[in-house]
Write a structure and sequence with these properties.
six-stranded mixed beta sheet, alpha+beta, single chain, Peptide Methionine Sulfoxide Reductase, Chain A
Length: 218
């Protein structure tokens, strides 16, 4: 999602939205709850997910009860290349990601993963999500410790029958998260009528509200 190239599209989308079919809406589906999960306990925990444009990921998880903060950024590569224009080349190893700080006594890691696979990303798309292509848009779980990696591996195995195509979501460990530039933070909340947001990301939040009404927060 290049900002410069999306400006004309944003204007057109204001008139064409009813005619457009958001790619993200087609892939949303309620998947089963994780069988292997962490207990509802603790004060603060962190999850890092990638799966397409970080605007949409941030927008979804900001509406999940128990989530305290969501930051858009980059993970998978080096600190020197953690910049939007460089990451956009697709050769840095980075993926557009979000760092989610949450209260594990209110929402578990497995529950966050369920939302991630249900509405935030299409786990069957390799190195792309919707209109965005490249390794920087890959579907990846950046496990923060061995426990998260174990839960993620078990959940991916559990979900295989839920999708009509192979799950290509990867699990990466030991990768540092780097916050993105200030203008990317809270982009969806601050720009709700932006064309890309209306077509690709707002349907994800709508799906969260529809599929997870008990955890949705306005």
């Amino acid at each position: 999602m290049k900002l410069a190239t999306l400006l004309p599209f944003a204007v057109a989308a204001a008139f064409a939205v009813p005619l457009l079919q958001p790619a993200s809406a087609e892939s949303t589906k309620l998947v089963p709850a994780a069988v292997v999960d962490a207990p509802l306990a603790g004060k603060t925990a962190t999850a890092v997910f990638a799966g397409g444009c970080f605007w949409g990921l941030e927008g979804v998880f900001e509406h999940v009860a128990g989530v305290r903060d969501v930051v858009s950024g980059y993970a998978g590569g080096a600190g020197l290349t953690a910049h939007y224009d460089v990451v956009g080349t697709g050769v840095t190893g980075h993926a557009e990601s979000v760092r989610i700080t949450y209260d594990p006594s209110k929402v578990t890691y497995g529950q966050l993963l369920r939302i991630y696979f249900s509405v935030a990303t299409d786990p069957t798309e390799l190195n792309r999500q919707g209109p965005d292509t490249g390794t920087q848009y890959r579907s990846t779980i950046f496990a923060q410790d061995a426990g998260q990696a174990k839960i993620a591996r078990a959940y991916i195995a559990q979900l295989k029958p839920s999708f009509g195509a192979p799950i290509v979501t990867t699990i990466e460990t030991g990768k540092t998260f780097y916050p993105a530039e200030a203008y990317h933070q809270d982009f969806m909340r601050l720009n709700p009528t932006y064309g890309y947001i209306v077509v690709n990301d707002a349907p994800k939040v709508a799906a969260l509200k529809r599929l997870f009404p008990k955890v949705y927060q306005g």
